[in-house]
Design a protein that fits this description.
Elements lengths: L1 E11 L11 E12 L1 H11 L2 E2 L5 H8 L8 E8 L5 E2 L29 E4 L5 E4 L5 E6 L7 E8 L1 H11 L2 E2 L5 H7 L7 E6 L5 E2 L25 E6 L5 E5 L4 E10 L1 E10 L6 H17 L26
Parallel strand pairs: 4-15
Antiparallel strand pairs: 1-16, 2-15, 3-15, 4-12, 4-13, 5-11, 6-7, 6-11, 8-9, 8-10, 13-14
Organism: Ilyodon furcidens (goldbreast splitfin)
Protein name: C-type lectin domain-containing protein
Pfam family, one: Lectin_C
Length: 318
Amino acid sequence: MYEFLEKTFIILFPPGVYVLSTNLFREYHYVNSPKTWAEAQQYCREVYGDLATIDSPEENDRLFLALSEPGKFVWIGLYDNTTGWKWTMGADDLASTNGFPPWQPNQPDNKDGKQSCIVMNLTGGWRDEICDTERPFICFDEHDASKYIVVQTFKFWEDAKNYCRSKHTDLVRVWNMTENGKIHPLIERNHWIGLYRDLWANWSDGSPVTFKNWGLGQPDNSGGINMTSCAAVETATGTWWDVDCSEKHEFICQTLIPSKRRLKLRFQSEADLTDPHIQQQILKQLHAKMETESLTDFKLCWIETDGQIFHREPKKKT
């Protein structure tokens, strides 16, 4: 009788399954051919996989080891979608048609790289501001006859949104210039509306942003209104900087490699576990069990140690 025997198998998770992405190892590739961020992204996607994603301090340290001499900027896959404006009410993004939205001159400009919420002024013009600025605001109430509720209490944008959702429907959404013309006569200074965007929320490969390593004072949007913002690693420190996407720099690509998960299990059986047929039957049973748990993208195989798969565990004294 074989008792308390160990077996080892490897589960390989393919790169196409996002929910198992934590089981993927990122292999970084340094490319010393300067390109714009968009050109670097295209090159990485054609040759490797994508521009580099970094989602932990450990990955940042590992990528830092791949860098060449200090004093350079090197593109990674993080970018700021400066045109990705969204409404708090409804799932649609901002649609621009026939002179709408009514931006004020040189707006939005994302000053200092920190402006991602929108105010309307007394003439109906829009501008971006830092969300942690206290302003009065305009709510929308689908059940109120007037629809537009002006609140003169000063609040941060997030607090204004929460207030509107608790007392009314939401921060106001402006559909077109006609509606904009109905709202702005109600106010006499800048008021929050429900338009916003997520700052630095996008990796080139679609991964969520869970880790950032900005340098001191970064991001700062030093290029002003005409700047497009992409992240680059500063090679002397390994910190990230906000750089104009049209500049040409070297870059780092990534390839996703399935990691190997090795598990040891104990078996107690009357069968001869050295029999290849029995070993294959065990694999089939494990495979069926994992599929019943909705785990379908894997591969199981035996690993030999000292020429054997199963090893008898010494009896322990009790």
